[in-house]
């Protein structure tokens, strides 16, 4: 497939070899804005882990196909809902929109966990860490770019895809209803897209970004350290602490803490089970969220795990 | 100016001592070959120079501490740590984009023109390229960086002979100039022989031989001794003796400090055919003397 004889340049290119050019380049200060390596490192992550955007796109597409089929029953559903009290009516009409958002959030969490399990491990496994480390990018920048994926990039991607999906759903429904004569007003009255989107963004950033931060940090750190059986190392210590606590003090505080964290904190963002999550104002406002000690403890933990991950990446070579 | 200066460089992995007090000094514009058996500490030494591993002792690369300033140092230092460390998922165009994005001294046009002379497609992924093409791609990226120090650790391992030859030809013709410095480790010594300006042998964490190529030429002589002269030649205390197609070949160090009387070139020329030893033979001689036999005594 390749003829080596013409593969390497043979000719001596005066521009390439000119020492004058080298000298003049050397005099010019070689500095880049500090954010450029970070920007390119994040792009690099998106090249390597295309599931970051492909997975939610695929889920959204599948959902829309299902939804399109379901619009066959939509006019009947709207007519039936019109007869009910406003609370029930709202619940029925808004339900698929919430479901879309929840499905995409679940996708986000799965992608985030799998991303964290590979981010600082894969580059050591395939030895490419030796290439990345040959470039003037600090370990801090690299780990920051990797941490920003579950922290910032995934929430934003999930948000954008969810909003577009919900908009397409609304558009499809409107077309179907307009074609079958009526019900558009009832639909639009019950699907407030803009407040729904704001709530979603808040939920994604606060809950999935900030509140879950220690989990992402923990995973990144463990995977920067583990040589193999990464999944085991990520889970076992948490289990071990719980078991030791149970044996020593006959209590489940640690496991309960973990559970609360996953569920969104002891009294943080909880939604009444009956009403839809997206439409109503959060029970915990931004102000309350910011003074929640649980959130801050989580961030401190994240910072500690992050610092450890940076240190580990500096020390660890290929596996 | 001095590019690398190491004094008493030490590194241990558990009870294994990888570097045992290495002293090293590399000046600008040199091409240093670091040769040693497997596990001698070559890669550890290079890793310390590149800021990939912590160490004890003093080490300055371009005036910086590589362990604490790796990211800054990498603006002026390039390395090919191994064949096939380029991530397999990356596209050629993405590799160019990324290096152009993060490296202030990367000249994209230069890399493109280098790649244009190969059969590598911009849209290919690294996993789709042959081993030789991956090496070409890595070399294209590295040669387009205006670095002051280039470190190559077994850069041609596993490549066929044509790629290997082209690799060093490109490096010498298109890249090297007097303001750059190159360190290379390899087991294929005969391929770098004509490239090097300096030679260093390392064994069990120690530098056991450190010499410029010019000095080797004036200092070491290999004599293919006439059969009737063998006893006389041995009396002059060669540092190594081997047999080749029925003839004895004796290697002499003309400036050995350990010998009371020095031999000289005409004296040896009288005993047989004289030539400068190649690196491989010199290496075997030095290593054999290292492993137990006292200096100056042949088998």
SSE string of chain B, helix = H, strand = E? EEEHEHEHHHEHEHEEHEHEEHEH
The computed structural class of chain A is mainly alpha
Number of strands of chain B: 13
Distance between the termini of chain A: 32 Å
Rounded mean pLDDT score of chain B: 88
> Biggest sheet of chain B: strands side by side, in what order?
5-6-7-3-8-9
User: Secondary-structure element order of chain A, as H and E?
Assistant: HHHHHHHHHHHHHHHH
Q: Describe the oligomeric state of these chains in a short phrase.
A: heterodimer
Which key features would you list for this structure?
heterodimer, A: 319 residues, mainly alpha, globular, B: 299 residues, alpha/beta, Rossmann fold, 2 domains, 6-stranded mixed sheet, 4-stranded antiparallel sheet, 11 helices, disordered C terminus
SSE topology:
The complex is a heterodimer of chains A (319) and B (299).
Chain A (H helix, E strand, L loop, with lengths): L13 H4 L1 H9 L7 H14 L2 H20 L3 H9 L3 H34 L2 H4 L3 H4 L6 H42 L3 H7 L2 H19 L1 H13 L4 H20 L3 H11 L22 H5 L2 H23 L4
Helix pairs in contact in A: 3-9, 4-6, 4-9, 5-6, 6-9, 6-12, 9-11, 9-12, 9-16, 12-13, 12-16
Chain B lengths: L1 E12 L2 E12 L3 E5 L6 H8 L6 E6 L8 H4 L3 E4 L11 H11 L5 H9 L14 H13 L5 E5 L7 H15 L5 E5 L3 H4 L5 E6 L2 E7 H7 E6 L4 H6 L4 E5 L2 E7 L11 H5 L2 E4 L3 H12 L9
Parallel strand pairs in B: 3-7, 3-8, 5-6, 6-7
Antiparallel strand pairs in B: 1-2, 1-4, 8-9, 10-12, 10-13, 11-12
Helix pairs in contact in B: 4-5, 5-6
């Amino acid at each position: 497939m390749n003829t080596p004889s013409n593969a390497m340049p043979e000719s001596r290119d005066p521009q390439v070899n000119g020492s004058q050019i080298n000298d003049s380049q050397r005099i010019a200060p070689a500095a880049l804005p500090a954010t450029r390596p970070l920007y390119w490192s994040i792009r690099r992550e998106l090249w390597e882990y295309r599931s970051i955007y492909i997975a939610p796109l695929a889920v959204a597409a599948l959902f829309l196909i299902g939804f399109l089929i379901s619009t066959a029953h939509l006019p009947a559903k709207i007519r039936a809902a019109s007869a009910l009290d406003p609370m029930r009516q709202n619940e029925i009409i808004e339900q698929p929109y919430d479901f879309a958002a929840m499905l995409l959030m679940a996708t986000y969490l799965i992608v985030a966990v799998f991303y964290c399990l590979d981010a600082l491990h894969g580059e050591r496994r395939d030895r490419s860490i030796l290439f990345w480390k040959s470039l003037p990018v600090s370990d801090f920048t690299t780990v920051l770019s990797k941490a920003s994926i579950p922290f910032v990039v995934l929430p934003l991607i999930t948000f954008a895809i969810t909003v577009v999906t919900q908009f397409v759903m609304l558009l499809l429904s409107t077309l179907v209803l307009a074609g079958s004569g009526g019900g558009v007003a009832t639909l639009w009255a019950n699907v407030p897209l803009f407040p729904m989107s704001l709530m979603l963004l808040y939920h994604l950033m606060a809950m999935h970004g900030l509140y879950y931060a220690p989990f992402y940090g923990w995973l990144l750190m463990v995977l920067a350290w583990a040589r193999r059986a990464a999944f085991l190392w990520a889970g076992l210590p948490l289990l071990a602490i719980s078991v030791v606590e149970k044996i020593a003090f006959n209590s489940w505080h640690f496991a309960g803490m973990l559970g609360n964290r996953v569920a969104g904190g002891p009294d943080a963002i909880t939604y009444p089970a009956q009403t839809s999550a997206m439409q109503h104002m959060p029970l915990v406002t931004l102000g309350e969220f910011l003074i929640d000690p649980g959130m801050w403890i989580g961030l401190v933990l994240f910072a500690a795990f992050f610092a450890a991950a940076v240190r580990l990446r500096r020390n660890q070579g290929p596996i | 100016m001095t590019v690398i200066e190491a004094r008493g460089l030490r590194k241990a992995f558990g009870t294994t001592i990888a570097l045992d007090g290495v002293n090293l000094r590399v000046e600008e514009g040199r091409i240093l070959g670091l040769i040693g058996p497997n596990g001698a500490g070559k890669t550890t030494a290079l890793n310390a120079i590149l800021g990939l591993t912590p160490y004890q002792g003093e080490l300055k690369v371009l005036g910086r501490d590589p362990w604490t300033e790796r990211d800054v140092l990498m603006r002026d230092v390039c390395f090919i740590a191994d064949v096939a460390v380029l991530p397999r998922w990356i596209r050629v165009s993405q590799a160019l984009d990324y290096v152009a994005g993060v490296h202030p001294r990367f000249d994209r046009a230069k890399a493109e023109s280098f790649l244009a002379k190969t059969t590598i497609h911009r849209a290919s992924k690294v996993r789709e390229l042959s081993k030789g093409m991956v090496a070409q791609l890595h070399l294209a990226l590295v040669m387009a960086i205006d670095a002051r120090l280039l470190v190559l650790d077994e850069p041609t391992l596993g490549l066929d002979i044509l790629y290997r030859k082209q690799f060093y030809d490109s490096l010498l013709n298109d890249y090297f100039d007097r303001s750059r410095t190159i360190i290379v480790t390899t087991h294929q010594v005969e391929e770098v022989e004509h490239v090097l300006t300096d030679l260093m042998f390392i064994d069990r964490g120690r530098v056991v031989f450190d010499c410029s190529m010019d000095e080797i030429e004036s200092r070491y002589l290999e004599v293919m001794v006439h059969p009737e002269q063998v006893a006389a030649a041995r009396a002059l205390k060669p540092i190594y003796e081997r047999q080749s197609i029925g003839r004895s070949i004796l290697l002499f160090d003309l400036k050995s400090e350990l010998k009371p009387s020095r031999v000289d070139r005409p004296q040896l020329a009288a005993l047989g055919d004289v030539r400068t030893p190649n690196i491989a033979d010199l290496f075997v001689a030095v290593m054999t003397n290292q492993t137990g036999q006292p200096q100056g005594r042949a088998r």
